[in-house]
Amino acid sequence: MYTIAAINGHTFGGGLIFALCFDYRFMRKDRGWICIPAVNLGIVLPNSYISLLQSKVNYKQAFNILMEGTRLPAETALEYRIIDNYCELDRLLDLSIDFATTLLSKNVNGSLIKDLRYGYLSSPIALLENVNDQTNQFL
């Protein structure tokens, strides 16, 4: 099945990584930035997070987000194709539900979507599985 995120405010760091895990993302237009401030905080991100970001945007855009900590308003996030659309807050849930309804009307097999997503995101998934394997060694 498809997954849809309705982003109603600032989406920084792990919040952005979480949002990138969704198939579609809709964002509030009038308030909120998308940002990974790791460079400003002196934090090294896991390779799986970087790989997930790279699967969504081009090299230069990933560079701006990761290496410069650039804060992106909704308009730029759409230009970067991080989000699929934006609107005013009072329309955000309706936009997301309307889009979901359109997707459901296609009657696509949920298992097929899962398998296609797994193939498309195979690199970040493999990195995450490796992290889980390493973590389990200590548990």
Describe this structure in words.
This protein is mostly helical. The protein contains 8 helices and 5 strands, in the order E-E-H-E-E-H-H-H-H-E-H-H-H. It has helices at about 15-20, 40, 45-55, 60-65, 75-80, 90-105, 110-120, 120-135, and strands at about 5, 10, 25-30, 35, 85. The protein starts with a strand and ends with a helix. The mean pLDDT is about 90.
Give the SSE string: EEHEEHHHHEHHH
β-sheet strand percentage: 5-15%
Rg is 16 Å
Q: With helices defined by DSSP (H or I, 4 residues minimum), what is the helix count?
A: 8
Give the helix proportion (percent range).
55-70%
Largest sheet: spatial strand order: 1-3-5
Number of strands: 5
Question: How much is the average pLDDT?
Answer: 88
**Large-scale geometry:** flat
Q: What kind of sheet is the major sheet?
A: 3 strands, parallel
Q: What structural category characterises the helix and strand content?
A: mainly alpha
Unreliable stretches (pLDDT < 50, length at least 5) are: none
Distance between the termini: 32 Å
